[in-house]
Amino acid sequence: MTARPDPQEIIAASERLLAEAQQLIDQADAKLRSDGLDPAKFLSTAASEQAEKEGRALFEADMLAIEREVEAERMRLQFHNPQTNAASKPVSGGVRRPRNMI
User: Fold this and answer.
1) CA–CA separation, 30 and 51 (whole Å)
2) Distance between alpha carbon 75 and the CA centroid of its chain, in Å?
3) Nearest to 17 by CA among 9, 5, 28, 7
C-alpha cells in the first residue's frame, strides 16, 4: 500500500506554491511598472486581443460551415432540378408502351 500524505504537508506545500506564484506575479508587475506600463491596463489589453483572435477564429469557422452548406444545397438542387439535369428528362414526349417480344 502507498502511504497517504499528511494533510498538513499538503496544506504547507500548497501554501508554498501560492506564495511562489504571488511572488512571480509581483515580479511581473514590477517589471511592467519599471517599463512604464500599468499592469491592469496591460492585462486588459492582452485579454481583449486574445478575445478578438478567438472571435475572428470562430467567425471564420462559421463562414466555412456556411459555405459548405451552400455548396451542398447547390449540389442537391442540381441533381433534383429537371431543368438543369439532362438525365432526368424523358426520352420521348409520353409514356412508352411495352413492346411485344417475338
Assistant:
1) 25
2) 26
3) 9
One-letter amino acid for residue 75 of the chain: M
Given its phi and psi angles, is residue 99 left (phi above 0), alpha (psi -120 to 50 degrees) or beta?
Answer: beta
Q: Using CA atoms, how far apart are residues 91 and 89, in angstroms rounded to an integer?
A: 7
**CB contact at 8 A, 34 and 27:** no
In 3D, which of 78, 100, 75 has the Cα closest to residue 88?
Answer: 78
Tell me how far apart the alpha carbons of residues 77 and 81 are, in angstroms, rounded to a whole number.
6
Phi, psi values for residue 82, rounded to 5°: -65, -25
pLDDT tens column, 15-70:
999 999 999 999 999 998 998 888 888 888 888 888 899 999 999 999 999 999 99
Determine whether 29 is exposed, middle or buried from the number of CB atoms within 10 Å of its CB (0-12, 13-18, 19+).
middle
Q: DSSP H helical segments within 7-38, as ranges?
A: 7-34
